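Hi team,

As requested, here is the filled-out complex form for the 5-hydroxymethyl-3,4-dihydroxypiperidine run. I kept the field names the same as last time so the parser does not choke. Let me know if anything looks off before we queue the next batch.

— J.
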Amino acid sequence: MAVSHYQVEGADHCDWTDWEAAGRTRGEPCGNASDSWRQYEDDAFLARAAGANAFRFSISWSRVEPRRGVFDDEVLERYVRFVDQLLALGIEPVVTLFHYTHPRWFHEQTPWTSIASVLEFGIFARRVVAAFGDRVRFWVILNEPLVFLLGGYLDGQIPPGISDSRSLNRVFDHLLAAHCFAASEIRTRVPHAAIGVAHNMMGFGPHRDWHPLDRLLVRSAQTMYNRGVIEAFATGRWKFLLPPGTTIRGRRDELPVYLDTFGVNFYSRLHLRCPGTTRWIGDFDYSDRTGLGLTDNGWEISPETLGPLLDDAAQSGFPLVITENGLADADDRLRPEFLRAHAREIARAEARGVPVHGYFHWSLIDNYEWLDGFEPKFGLYAVDRATMARTPRGSVAVFRELGREFLHLNDENSLRDAQLSLHPSGAE
Ligand code: IFM
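And here is what came back:
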């Protein structure tokens, strides 16, 4: 099961809160989100009731370090209590350190364009690891670094809202350096921890099957969007093109050493057309080519795309984990078949030798969907935002049943075993 801090906790004041106040989002502001800051322990019960044996959540940097160099121990304690609750329920806590938001001071004082960002992130990581490193064995340092790079520094849609292609190389390099710094902090304290990254991977298909330019654009998008990050973590070197014409190129030889498992966030497929009607370089849209329907926010449900993406990710040589997968479906009309179809794809991938070690559903509960506010309902449990009460959707039972059947989830906690097999000498 997966959530992220800003999307569920509520009353977190950070760069994204300012973004909302400046009118840069379409939906209503995050406010109290889904109230998980107060209800985390109950959320852990809900995850258990759905049969989950692992829970991925993220740490709010802005709560932990509201002013530069000033750390809030009560906040860290609050996360420790949640981790303890997960452990008491037999659920493996999986901690993400970066999931899009920053403390308010960050972009002013130590932005990702400056090398100081790496040090600041490393110091934050050190404090978190010191607080509960002894209890957490699976860490995802960066969530969707490429999505953040594109949104934050190319099209300026998310904080810091910059649109400067000259900054891209530097920011990407600093994000990866920050990964290494944080990973070394984790390894120092928790030598047998499994360290991961969550990479957003997208299916791409030609708008017109027969059209050579559409097909060419599909190949370029696959290289740019999906494979660049895989190559970086697999080899410590990267070179890929970001539209319209920036080559992202760099080298950090230590990067593969600081990764144990590669995480895939997968949702949908885009259809590409070149030349586009509005932009020569191409148009992209979602359409229901599979006949499985479009989600509430208009995304195609395309489970058969997942297999080839897992094959690509497996080229990294790392064991894989699906770190996010889910859909917006308020009526729970499409979710049961969505879950079943994706589980089948994972089972097929495993059968041909792709090492998939875990699956995290996005999301446990309805939450704040960034630019789109609360409209899209991604939760296995619905949240009534007036009362903050949680109600199971029918898919909770489907998730539980599939967990047993396909992903070998059971009360013996198989993710624990998977992690130990990542580190055979690492029994604690
Ligand atoms: O809600 C987001 C999440 O924060 C990052 N991955 C995609 C999800 C759905 O859009």
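Two things worth flagging: The longest helix spans residues 212-235. The longest strand covers residues 194-206.

Thanks,
J.
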